[in-house]
Amino acid sequence: MKVKTIIFDLDGVIVHTDKFHYLAWEKICEEEGLLFDESINHQLRGVSRRESLDLILKYNQKELKDIKKDELLEKKNNLYKESLNHLTKNDLSNDILDTLLELKKRGYLIAIGSSSKNTKFILEKLEIINLFDAISDGTNISRSKPDPEVFLYISNILNQSNETCLVVEDANAGIEAAKRVKMIAVGIGDSVSEEIADYKIKNISNIIQLLELINNN
Ligand code: G6P
Ligand code: MG
């Protein structure tokens, strides 16, 4: 079956906002005396804000009352949104913009599948929101990755079978979500394990060659 739809994760794939998530959590943890490092951060990729806090607390073997958790979640999001304010279309690399345009030129459907509730705000800042045929994000799902809900929303609204969708992800949780529903899972970046992704690429533009390879077979 030929691939027709390319679903991109947002943070850490389209734009480097994964760094801003990291810095915001680092600040929260510093203030609260909680341990936080790269290895726990990798586990937060693709995971909702609330579940991320739960993972950090579990890692620290600490429990907090819901009211305190809500306060920390709001604080984290405010810190994160402060960094997003400085985002402009210059934060989008040429490699990514050219690849998105080339995919459209070749007739592929392109979509975003992210657990973030800030997705549309970021896409607007980057001035690419209108490029996508569909957007699925933290505002339309009730379970975050590795649950496949975020990707199924896309195949449903675009009326495509899952086998014809290819997902590009920087998170193991996203790779697992794609594979659970038989979408092709492509990993990018250091945090995706070679063993679980169907393919691993170095740059987003490698998608073009990969699609030629898959679709001509
Ligand atoms: C993405 C990021 C996660 C983040 C989640 C929720 O999946 O990879 O690190 O926790 O979105 O983002 P939000 O902007 O809603 O806090
Ligand atoms: Mg990501």
Automatic annotation (TrEMBL):
InterPro entries named in the record: B-phosphoglucomutase_hydrolase (IPR010976), Beta-PGM (IPR010972), Beta-PGM-like (IPR051600), HAD-like_sf (IPR036412), HAD-SF_hydro_IA (IPR006439), HAD_2 (IPR041492), HAD_sf (IPR023214), PGP-like_dom2 (IPR023198)
Details of cofactor binding: Binds 2 magnesium ions per subunit.
Cofactor requirements of the protein: Mg(2+)
Residues of the site described as Important for catalytic activity and assists the phosphoryl transfer reaction to Asp8 by balancing charge and orienting the reacting groups: 114, 145
Enzyme class: isomerase
Binding of substrate, residues: 9-11, 25, 44-49, 52, 76, 114-118, 145
Membrane-spanning segments: none
Binding-site residues, Mg(2+): 9, 11, 169-170
Entry superkingdom: Bacteria
Record-stated family: Belongs to the HAD-like hydrolase superfamily. CbbY/CbbZ/Gph/YieH family.
NCBIfam families: bPGM, HAD-SF-IA-v1, HAD-SF-IA-v3, PGMB-YQAB-SF
Protein name: Beta-phosphoglucomutase
Organism taxonomic ancestry: Bacteria, Bacillati, Mycoplasmatota, Mollicutes, Acholeplasmatales
